[in-house]
Amino acid sequence: MPDHTLDTRLVHAGEPWPRVEGAVVTPVFQTAMYLSRPGEAYHEQGYIRLSTTPNHRVLADKLCAIEGGEAAITTSSGMAALTSAILAFAGSGDRVMTQRALYGGTHGFFESELKAFGIGVDAVDPNDPADWKRKLTPRTRVLYCETITNPTMAVGDLPGLAAFAMENELVSIIDNTFATPINFRPIEHGFDISVHSATKYLNGHTDIVAGCAIGSEEHIARVKHRVDHLGGCLDPHAAFLLHRGMRTLALRVGRQNESALALARALEGRSRVATVNYPGLESHADHVRARRLFVEQSGGGFGGMLSIEIDGSVEDTMAFIAALSIPLKAPSLGGVETLVGRPAATSHAALEPNERRALGIPDTMVRISTGIEDVEDLKADFVQALERIG
Question: Do 365 and 288 share a domain, yes or no?
């Protein structure tokens, strides 16, 4: 659907035609395998683990249509997509270049599992090309980054990183979960592979765990083979729910963009708020870059995620969270309900305190995932919680 807008493609792209038995909604194909066809290769066989079912194909086609990829694969989690993508292009003796300040689960995978596989990791400043050149080695195979860092909400030099990877024949992989295709489409900016924790915004309803990777046919074929062998496939019912959730992505993310910006502005400068991290604020160090990439070039917004640092103790921070009445106190993000939590106790709990501080994640930081509730209700609730702690 090349002539249609992203909003329209989210609803209609990838749907089977003619519709299955005339059904407007693609049904759940709850069967583990399909009849064999003459001459089909192993990775093409009709089998859930090989991600070749009708539910998988509909999702892949829709993901390609909204991110501009040639091929896509869905997985059992965001980590399954990310780890399979990395391992598809890096093996023993190779190295991966990654930005600093990653999601805690990704950091743990790089620090523990990759090293166990004999793969080296070089962390770089995403804003310093000189650092990239210093850390580049003849065995560097992959460059990995996040569109918006979790939970500090920084936006690195994404076009520069993609260009650097291309110039040095590295496979560039970016986690686009926080931005979503509404706000940023990495392939349009030169990245090879875009991965998502589809648990979050793509599904948007906090009821499944899933992941995906989008890119060229050549790259995704390698990722798929790795997923096929490691077994990180998505089951048909979860695929059905993800497919349903993606249809409303533009509506949900548009609302979340607006609410996060309004909440960030309402919290900035308030008593007991030391810092508000949100790229939509003019005070944010990466605001100009974020505005250019996410708003001017992509026609979206600054995302539904923000974090704040409480001016006080950990006990004050926990009291503030407890005083909130609308947000749910839970890990994860990207759903229709607002969620809050301390990264030191959730997403980055596995890191040592000194590691978190070095990454700009104090124990008094609160990460906020805005939902689709009335923004005035949200602002009032956060203000009253701040007043409760003085």
Answer: yes
At 200-213, the pLDDT tens digits run 999 999 999 999 99
User: pTM for the full model?
Assistant: 0.95
Residue-level pLDDT at 172: 98
Distance CA 189, CA 187 (A): 5
Tell me the β-bridge partners of 121.
96
Residue 79: both structure tokens together? 């980590």
DSSP, res 234: P
Structural domain for 134, as ranges:
6-246
Same domain assignment for residues 132 and 273: no
Measured between alpha carbons, how far is residue 117 from residues 81, 90, 112, 121 in Å?
18, 10, 9, 11
Q: What is the DSSP string of 353-376?
A: HHHHHHTT--TTEEEEE--SS-HH
- The Cα 198–Cα 74 span in angstroms is 9
How many whole angstroms separate alpha carbon 152 and alpha carbon 305?
A: 10
CB atoms within 10 A of CB 130: 9
What proportion of the chain, given as a percentage, has pLDDT over 70? Answer: 99
Q: What are phi and psi of 376, to 5 degrees?
A: -65, -35
Return the DSSP state at 274: E
Report whether pLDDT(1) > 70.
no
β-strands 339-341, 365-369 pairing:
antiparallel
Query: What pLDDT digit, counting tens, does each position of 122-180 carry?
Result: 999 999 999 999 999 999 999 999 999 999 999 999 999 999 999 999 999 999 999 99
23 pLDDT band (50/70/90 cuts)? confident
d(CA 192, CA 170): 9
CA distance 98 to 354: 20
- Do 196 and 277 fall within a single domain? no
Domain boundary among 246, 269, 302: 246
Q: Does a structural domain hold residue 1?
A: no
Cβ–Cβ < 8 Å for 1, 7: no
How many C-alpha atoms does 252 have within 13 Å on its Cβ side?
25
